[in-house]
Amino acid sequence: MSSSRFGKAEGRRRIIPVAALLLCAALFSALGLWQIKRLAWKEALIAHVEAVTKAPPIPAATLPFAPAPEALEYRHVTLSGRFEPQATALTTALTELGGGYWQMVPLRLPDGRAIWVNRGFLPQGTKREAAIALVPHGPVSITGLLRRAEPDHDILRANDPATERWYFRAIPQLSAARHLPAAAWFVDAQGAPQHAPAQPGDATPGLTVLAFPNNHLQYALTWFAMALGSLAAIALVLRHRG
Prior knowledge:
Layout: H1 3-52, E1 58-59, E2 76-83, E3 89-95, E4 98-108, E5 114-123, H2 128-133, E6 139-148, H3 171-178, E7 182-189, H4 216-239
Parallel strand pairs: 1-2, 5-7
Antiparallel strand pairs: 2-4, 2-6, 3-4, 4-5, 6-7
Helix pairs in contact: 1-4
């Protein structure tokens, strides 16, 4: 075989690994850039939560009921009214206490509107009837954190109101199922209501996650290093003469 024909055959053999390595470098670079965007989002979230949680509470009844006030998420709010125990819904929860449910109960304001309140965590196996029995019946005052509604589904599962299967705190869907004129957001209770101390077995409040891990820079550097490694491997392939 002549040297020119050998060189052409050798070049063709290099095309596939070089192309594969170029594809890997592009993919790793894209993942690194995505992590940089995630880093900016996470830093903004941490700064926002730190700022609003230090602000004084505001009356929930003075806030617009829709759309959800994004700029006020995690702000301390106060609200007073009466719970509607029979409207209780248990939504899937995974917390530092383990798996279980968030006890979502609407609180009716004096003007007739309602705000869903996450009274706290109940352990796995809690029945809705038992959760209803834990809800105070008299007037209560609550301080909590304003939260935006969650979507009603993901790629694996969806809420099923007909069977009382609630995987997400989708407030519009919960309100429709209970026929309530309720806000588009909800409140995470941070303690037992005033005038209604917690009873044995009651929901555990105050489990809102306010500390967010931020490893995106580390992930980004890892992806960029892998992209550089792919480019270095291309150089080795091109230098190799068989």
